[in-house]
Amino acid sequence: METAQLAYVLLFLVTAVLLFHLRRGGRSAPAKLTTAHRPHPNPVLGNTVEFIRNRRRFFDWYTDLLRASPSGAIEAWGPFGAGHAVTTACPAAVEHLLRGNFGNYVRGPSFRAAMSELIGDGLFAADGRLWSVQRKVASYAFSSRALRRFSDDVLAVHLRGTLLPFLDAAAASGEAVDLQDALRRFAFDSICHVAFGVESSTLLETAREDSRHEALFAAFDAAVEISFRRALAPFTLVRKLTGLLNVGSSRRLREAVGVIDDYAMSVVESKEAACRDREDGDGDGDPDLLSRFMAAMDEEDGGELGAMFPTPEGKRRLLRDVVVSFVLAGKDTTSSALTWLFWLLAANPRCERRVRDELSRSPDGGGGGDAKGMHTHYLHAAITEAMRLYPPVPFNGRVAVGDDVLPGGAAVRAGWFANYSAYAMGRMERLWGEDCLEFSPERWLRDGGEFVAVDAARYPVFHAGPRACLGKEMAYVQMKTVAAAVLRRFSVEVAAPAPAMDSPPAYEMTATMKMKGGLWVRLRKRE
Ligand code: HEM
């Protein structure tokens, strides 16, 4: 490099550091009294170089760092201190973040900005009163009656109508198929059925009558991926520039969101028309999610939500955000858990035999879409154990409103991220014992064979506290029904990645734990 160029680079770095220090108004020094381990930050670039070096094994890198930290917390940051974050794998600290000091930890403006085009004001991105009002309305959609309806009307239809016929065809052909892709499409179709009330399929070509539904699947994938990358990026300059010029990922995001908007708005409008046609309010007894939110906004006094979104356009926009948030919640989570479960069962044939023994003794649901497998404790334990090792949401975080100190002593400053890694927590010897890296559903069973849950702060796979996952029960019904139906009907031989515990498959660095390259299986129909 020329001397002049070198001088410019140095000048740029010095100015940037000065600006950064000025911007933080003298609060630049990290908290002095903290037990959080700091993994060798560079004075200017923070932990960026290590982050780039470990980007393909990010969750394992963090697990290594958290294991080495006596307090179970680490503190890291990006260039010029951007993205300053404390991450913990300690149950007491998770309890504090998600329950004890819940009010101090919010989604925050940067997450909202990164996700705004996709989910706007929907439940996932909302904080404060906007979140709590939505949460209350949404929670009715997860009643036991709604669960039964999900199991009988949605799961049964998609299982018998598309997933099993698709797998039957794969078994007949003898060809390997990507089970992860099939499970993702199945979950997407089911959640769209719940959220939008549409009964389309992206899985079976003969059932793909609605090409808009296929386009919606692709649009969701693109929008989630781009939004997730934005949420991780420490700076917003590139995003703002590409947004202004409508090029690159900003353009792709806009196109994908356009497809989602058209679809969601047309569903909202036809629902409104259907409601007008039944002015007397004579509904079908158990309204779906969209109808619940419409009713909440139309309450006589306008309802609190109605008051927050007084114009018809504003109301429609929120309804769109609500359904999109739900699709997001259910789209990749259950399929991720099932993908890893099938791989782990193939790598541990002893456990697969126990699941099948239990299924052969339990009331036979005929592999159909009912929830009779709900009393299958071993299957429940196997799914829970698969998510301990491969949590569908491996890493999660909030932003601190005020300064705080986590149990264990890690200091968190206002504006910093406060994260927990469910992936690292599932792999901690101090939480699960010496065999923490083994797949052992038995660890969840009492001597009598009943499943025993642990506190969510130790197993935060579904989050914990006031913002804990609303769809947990629904997810278990879905996962157990699908696993039971597939294992009863087929012998599943994993073709790739090789099923061996000592060489686990790679994952993709996405919001949900996705197996890199998919899960390729050959199926043989059982007698
Ligand atoms: C194995 C499957 C699933 C796992 C592991 C899971 C995990 C999670 C996690 C970690 C969160 C917290 C997200 C955050 O606030 O940062 C969450 C929230 C949520 N989940 Fe799930 N989820 C699953 C399936 C589902 C399903 C099928 C639904 C239903 C459509 C659902 C609905 C929700 C909702 C509505 C929230 C937001 C709660 C709030 O912010 O108040 N989840 N889930």
TrEMBL record:
<comment type="similarity">
    <text>Belongs to the cytochrome P450 family.</text>
</comment>
<dbReference type="GO" id="GO:0006629">
    <property type="term" value="P:lipid metabolic process"/>
</dbReference>
<keyword id="KW-0560">Oxidoreductase</keyword>
<keyword id="KW-0503">Monooxygenase</keyword>
<keyword id="KW-0812">Transmembrane</keyword>
<dbReference type="InterPro" id="IPR001128">
    <property type="entry name" value="Cyt_P450"/>
</dbReference>
<keyword id="KW-0479">Metal-binding</keyword>
<dbReference type="Pfam" id="PF00067">
    <property type="entry name" value="p450"/>
</dbReference>
<dbReference type="GO" id="GO:0016705">
    <property type="term" value="F:oxidoreductase activity, acting on paired donors, with incorporation or reduction of molecular oxygen"/>
</dbReference>
<dbReference type="InterPro" id="IPR036396">
    <property type="entry name" value="Cyt_P450_sf"/>
</dbReference>
<keyword id="KW-1133">Transmembrane helix</keyword>
<keyword id="KW-0408">Iron</keyword>
<keyword id="KW-0472">Membrane</keyword>
<dbReference type="GO" id="GO:0005506">
    <property type="term" value="F:iron ion binding"/>
</dbReference>
<feature type="binding site" description="axial binding residue">
    <location>
        <position position="469"/>
    </location>
    <ligand>
        <name>heme</name>
    </ligand>
</feature>
<keyword id="KW-0349">Heme</keyword>
<dbReference type="InterPro" id="IPR002401">
    <property type="entry name" value="Cyt_P450_E_grp-I"/>
</dbReference>
<dbReference type="GO" id="GO:0020037">
    <property type="term" value="F:heme binding"/>
</dbReference>
<dbReference type="GO" id="GO:0004497">
    <property type="term" value="F:monooxygenase activity"/>
</dbReference>
<protein>
    <recommendedName>
        <fullName>Cytochrome P450</fullName>
    </recommendedName>
</protein>
<dbReference type="InterPro" id="IPR017972">
    <property type="entry name" value="Cyt_P450_CS"/>
</dbReference>
